[in-house]
Amino acid sequence: MKRRDFLHNLAHAAAVPMVYNSLGFNNIGFQDLLNNSDSTKKLILIRLDGGNDGLNTLIPLNKYSELSNVRPHVILPENKIIDLGEKDLGFHPELGRFKSLFDEKRLKIIQNVGYNTPDFSHFRSMDIWQSASDSNQYLTSGWMGRYLEDIHPLYPEQYPTSDSPHPLAVELGQSSILTTGINSVTSFTSNQPWDFREIMGDFDNTYPEDSIGKKLKFIQIITRQSNIYGEALKTSYEKGNNFDNYPNSDLGRQLQVASSLIKGGLESKIYIANLGGFDTHDNQVVTGDTTKGEHANLMKNLNNSIGALFDDLDLNSKSEDILVMTFSEFGRTIVSNGSNGTDHGTAAPLFVFGNKVDFNVLGENPEIPRNAIWENNLETEFDFRQVYYSLIKQWLGGNEDTAENVLFKNFDQLPIIQSKYIDTDGDGVSDDRDLCDTTPLGAMVNTDGCEIFSLPADNYSIQTNGVSCSGKSNGQITISIQNTDHIYNLSIPEIDSTYVLDTSNQHQLIIDELGIETYTLNFTVEGQEGYLQTFEIGITEPPALSAKSSVNQKSKTIQINVKGSDLYYTEVNGEKRSYQIDNFKLQLRSGMNIIKISTPQDCQGVHTEKVFISEQVKHYPNPVLNTLNIVIPGEDNSTTVKVYDRSGNLINRYQESISFSRMISINTSQLPSDIYVVKVNGQTVDQTFKMIKR
Length: 694
Hints:
By secondary structure, the chain is an alpha+beta fold. About 20% of the residues lie in helices and about 30% in strands.
């Protein structure tokens, strides 16, 4: 099985690892520098599957006469078209909210988008759009997957991280090649984030050094990522789900989920939704009323869903950094057919919504030959990859290298985002304020966008050992520097100490005799004024020993779940053992068992538990007339039998010796007819049962 197929079969999931594991420290300052404007920007892509009829979506009013002549079966009544008020264009009557968003300067329209040498197959054309390939080129990766891999080069093996804890992209419905990278699948597919289930259990962390071992390790990575990401989606959805004015449609529900995830704090940059049904060869319109039909229903769904999305995000102040783009694999023919429909065409308009778009209409109204025939098609004015190239550089924070890595060539940019919001070099400073507009990707910059000295946070490897017990001062911090080209100065104000890490100590340091406290580690570099990297490190005491148990009387065992240590001592009825696992089973004996659990650290405490394991007695007959026979297994020599009425009052008490036959007999002839409770007690017996007296 190919790796791509493998990934798709595993829930189309991928994920991201903790850089610092559980060392208990926060990176102060570095995070603030990372939080540039691009880090909050999100892109919602809406696929219009089937090939949207652009000429009935955005109508060139200056060509209305020509359109009436060549598509008489589907042309919209001129008086029903919503006049855009610009460039002799109008919207379909069902796109009223598109018009309001355009008036609000929140809609960018790009006309005549397509590609050279068009392919009229749905599957091939959509594959071209999603892979961003030439029409004669076949790629197995999508442009969005390649973009996400480019900005996350260690994905998926080293994800999730503390800086990127959520899925890179979320597909809200069916999965696609769009987010498939060269080496991984970069999306998490979920249409029900409120109902997440773990897909697999725990794994062993050791694998054979062969092809099978590599595959098993790969399964573990994406499964663990899927479970982590699924929980993140569920949490975000539940937190942000507070708006219900979406259409009751698949697209409405998809956008409602996307909005809820965004409002709930999900940090994923890409969301992908889908609206199908645009292959309108027939019944595109209704005979006698072209404002109705399948295409009108699709326009209404699209209009109302996008409108509800922006209403929702506006209400929650989340629309500022959201961009929504629609795309379809191709447009429809200029000429209508005889079935009230249109056939596969070429170019079509593309819509980009957002508060920061360069709001206008880009491109010329399409040329419509008055006597067009079926073979005539609309000319492509803009290659769809120009849109992708522009989005990468203007919205997604990529530079020219990133855009070329993703699309394999350079394209002319289109003005999609307002210039004051564009950050060409991806350094977090917009072009209108950037004095150094060719900063290398990933470089640390000042407020003018000019590079300053920096080191990655993972340059510092820090490990801690907590104190052995409360009151002890035997905690330890171990530091190792990865970049050994510099001399580092370290100050720790809590202990009023300074240290130097250089070639004399191999850039390594052990600080011991530390007590329970949070320590601030301030790193500076000689010769680099203004550089400061700070970490907060916690030295803690071991937690109190905790244990939960479950007793199985039948098997005479107790299952113990413990927390607090890596080593546990057990004592059961004087028999001692040790365990290096946190879940183990202990064998018990009949009668009273005394269980003690401890750790090497006395301060963690001792867990003590008493468990009585009873032999299982048998009794007959029931109902009983005169004599109740009780069989008592085990080795007890005597037993006590107590009889209680249904009110709990003690009626009779018998002290009986147990014969070789292990059976005792109780005379019940004097008892009135009723229901009684019988309790049998001994060294290894503690049983209660009901007795019916005739």
